[in-house]
Amino acid sequence: MHLAVGEGLVGTVAKSGAPLAVQHAQEHPDFKYFPETGEDRFASLMAAPLAVRDVTIGVLVVQTVNPRHFGAADVELLQTCGQLLAPVVLNARLLELVSGSDDDRGRFVDQLARAGVPVADGRPSREERNVELRGTAASTGIAIGPIYLLEDPLDLARVDYTPSGDAAQERSDLVRAIADARRELDDVIDEVGENFGPEFASVFNTHVQILEDHGFLQRLERAVAETGDACQAVRRVVDDYRALFGRIEDPYFRERGDDIEDVGRRVVAKLLGVRHRNVPLEPGSVVVTSMILPAHFTMLEMDKVAALVAEHGGATSHGAIFARTLEIPSVTGVEGLVRTARPGETAIVDGTSGRIYLAPDEALLAEYRRAQQRFEVAVGHLDALRHRPAETRDGRRVVLSANVGLLADLRLVERHGAEGIGLFRTELLALAHRGAPPEDEQEILYERVARAMAPRPVTIRTLDLGGDKAVPNLGLEAEENPQLGCRSIRLTMRHEDMMRAQLRAILRASAVGNVRLLLPMISAIDELREVRRLVHATQDELARRGFAYDPALAIGIMIEVPSAALISDALARECDFFSIGTNDLTQYTLAVDRGNEAIAHLFRPLHPAVLALIDMSVRAANRAGIPVSVCGEMASNPLAVPLLVGLGIGELSGTPRAVPVVKEIVRSLDSGDVTADARAALASGTVQEVEQIACERLERAGLLEHPDIGSWLVEIVSRARQG
Ligand code: PEP
Ligand code: MG
To answer: Which domains, ranges and CATH numbers included, belong to the chain?
Structure first.
């Protein structure tokens, strides 16, 4: 039966939006009798509109057989009930409509439109927005490609789920996931209600309502039967709902679609359990995220990532370092990025200047395509010269090696002419496994790297986890200050089985190549002694079991905590080499979180205090007759290179692509000049003074006119000169 708006008493309330109470309904001038309602038994009527944001979507009616007078309090109560019930009815109606025909949907959308809720009739057209954003240049190079927005919540469209192949299993998995999601929502409601009040919890009541809706559940049931894939079923049903709600322009109504998507995500998350997710990307994608995390490198297909751009984070966060290691252009700390970037839209990423352009026009695109080509030609040109030695004009030799973390990186080592591996970060394997990597996999990896590089050295660092390299399944407790907490060597020494497994794998690789063992984050002599004891015990164990290893394996330590630099004389007597980690050394010396973009301007590796600690460590190493290298980002920073050489550093280890650039710099220097520069820098009071000394040196060495790297250096120098 259809009752038009304005027709009869109920229709009048729908039209006017005002409540109505009549003792003798049939005597009212607007009364209209419809035999199919059987309303003739009722004498009195009270009605209140069901309104959502002033749009009447129905009428709530109370009728009595005996005549009754409804007072103001009754009317008020009914109105309140109407307000509370209206969203519930709306949700139910929307849910129901998805199962209906296109005609039904069209009618409903028309009704909404007539009721003043505008409905979109098409998708927005693509535009050239030319939005320019700026951040911190974290990894050089230019990339142009479609944006992939790596959202923090589970992305339903891209979640990688492999169905079991058994439709009945998929159905029962889905039922279990729905029940789990339902239980989780109950907990959420309790928690949110308790912490923030019931009005905050009510949004989750809507989610419960969706999860209990028969139409929703039936559609899921049908979809899983048809697809034999629980995840696909959720996706399909959510998409159907979204398609309907997406046509509604009014944001309030559109948000109902977001609720359904949220519910879908919750169910899929339960479905996946602890299953690892992968993100299938279009080749050449510009991945936009809120923060580049080491975990992303195992989640994304990195060969399809053209650039990584993040709203937060500094250039020395581990995520940014991994991007550099993999030679992926990257910009971090780009304010407003996640809000502004649109998935699929073209973006230009300039990892050298730290600029991002969203939806650029053709002219800008063409300009950047040319720049991209120039950059690649320059890199190619430098690579072609890779066999020239890295030595200063007056013949002082500096070893240039590479920091890597994957087997695939070895081709970069060869391409750019690195002389060895100065730092092999073993964390990526752990991140890929989301926990302690299996010993046999470690063995295979380290042996392959050692063999491929032999006789060149490979410096393998024990797992440097914790801090911003959080790994699940290690029983790590949440810490107030993770960078100052149980990270790195502190963590591995707490998990002796894990440490011993890694030491066995490294020691066994030492039998087939030139392997050195590097211990991160040593801060006291006891720590070094304890690890050495464990290394010797592991060597004995291997000998007993008949496995080969290098008995003279060099054991070195990272100098990356100020205390280590301050006691470097004592440490140098008990280890075989130093490797200075300037990223952490800067972080801990200046008390500046390396990953916090809000204080990124204070993260200054050229601070005289950092240089003083480097100087102290070099002198201690020289006195003990052990080699000392720098493996932090400073080793590939053009302003730092002359000063590090001047301080007496004999080896610089940086990202593979930095090797040819650093070589060009070293080859234009004179060791006497840079030694004098280093002394002057140590005597300086400010970073600015130190940077001026470095700029002057690059200029005097003629590097600003260098055909391949000149324009890049000019930019760096002018930025430094502006402060
Ligand atoms: C450093 O701290 O400088 C270093 C090389 O180690 P990581 O960046 O991996 O902490
Ligand atoms: Mg470090």
So the answer is: 8-115 (3.30.450.40), 131-150+279-377 (3.50.30.10), 156-272 (1.10.274.10), 390-722 (3.20.20.60)
